[in-house]
Design goal:
Elements: E1 2-4, E2 8-14, E3 26-37, E4 45-51, E5 54-62, E6 65-69, E7 74-77, E8 82-86, E9 91-97, H1 99-104, E10 106-116, E11 127-131, E12 138-140, E13 146-152, E14 154-155, E15 158-159, E16 168-175, E17 180-184, E18 190-197, E19 200-201, E20 207-208, E21 213-216, E22 222-227, E23 231-238, E24 246-248, E25 251-253, H2 256-267
Antiparallel strand pairs: 1-2, 2-3, 3-10, 4-9, 5-8, 5-10, 6-7, 6-9, 8-11, 12-13, 13-16, 14-15, 16-23, 17-22, 18-21, 18-23, 19-20, 19-22, 24-25
Bound molecules: manganese (II) ion.
Length: 274
């Protein structure tokens, strides 16, 4: 576990330097497991910093976050809400606990997933989608097995709340102890499941427990998950982007010179300011 700023005690489940190509278009996954913050006064989080070349998706399970960026977007997200930020050509933003949450204190639990953009979209205009809980379709599974919240992509005819550049299924899954679900996916896409809580058996009987990531083969068009205990899961499945990945800190591009350009553009203020 390490701290991002003074607000986010995260485990880096993977990043673009180890699984970038294998899990393309997914670049990085940080998971802040439930952590109790005492009531406080000081701001908690990370101050202004840039991103370029990809999107950041923040899923809040417990606690409340506040965001502000150089494109003029901002907002507050709480349990069940998702923020989908498109850094693309460049953005400067800050990520803090909301003032109310700092004052009250309480448990914080969240995930941040970085999703790559194809080269042709890396210089697109920055964007921001707030996806409140009420706008995220919640599909109940048969046999009281649990539910699937469709953050993006589609499941059982329900379209996800987020607009994406490439096909991406991002599903927030609840699976009850002893129950199984067969999930339809796309042959050739990269699929991984983060276990937030509980224990699950995958297709072949391999098990994954809390804070573990199950990585699936690209072959085939479905996976089966069975909960050994009440489970909370985040499934990500997407079409691989077959392009070079060159990343440095908050920038992920296709070449080294584009990374140098990103640092220069940030330093010269060309990604805007807060
Ligand atoms: Mn950031």
């Amino acid at each position: 576990m390490h701290w991002v700023g003074n607000g986010f005690p995260v485990r880096s489940i993977f990043d673009y330097n180890n699984l970038g190509q294998e899990l393309s278009p997914f670049l990085l996954l940080d998971y802040a497991a439930p952590y109790e913050f005492p009531p406080g006064k000081e701001a908690r989080g990370v101050g202004g910093h840039p991103h370029r070349g990809f999107e950041t998706v923040t899923v809040v399970y417990q606690g409340e976050l506040e965001h502000r960026d150089s494109a003029g977007n901002g907002g507050k997200i709480g349990p069940g809400d998702v923020q989908w930020m498109t850094a693309a050509s460049g953005i400067v933003h800050e990520e803090f606990h909301s003032k109310e949450f700092v004052q009250k204190g309480g448990p914080m639990q969240m995930v941040q997933l970085w999703i790559n953009l194809p080269a042709k979209d890396k210089r697109a205009k920055a964007g921001y989608q707030t996806l409140p809980k009420a706008q995220i379709p919640n599909v109940m599974l048969p046999d009281n097995a649990g539910s699937v919240r469709v953050i993006s992509g589609d499941f059982e005819g329900q379209n996800g709340a987020a607009k994406t550049f490439t096909p991406i299924n991002l599903w927030d899954i609840t699976l009850n102890a002893g129950k199984s679900v067969e999930l339809p996916l796309t042959d050739g896409h990269n699929t991984a499941v983060l276990v937030l809580q509980g224990k699950v058996d995958a297709n072949d009987g391999q098990q994954a427990g809390a804070t573990e990531l199950a990585v699936f083969s690209r072959d085939g068009d479905r996976i089966t998950l069975t909960a050994k205990s009440d489970a909370k899961l985040l499934l990500m499945s997407g079409q691989p982007i077959h392009e070079p990945i060159v990343g440095y800190g908050p920038f992920v591009m296709n070449t080294r010179s584009e990374i140098q350009q990103a640092f220069e553009d940030f330093q010269e203020g060309r990604m805007g300011d807060l």
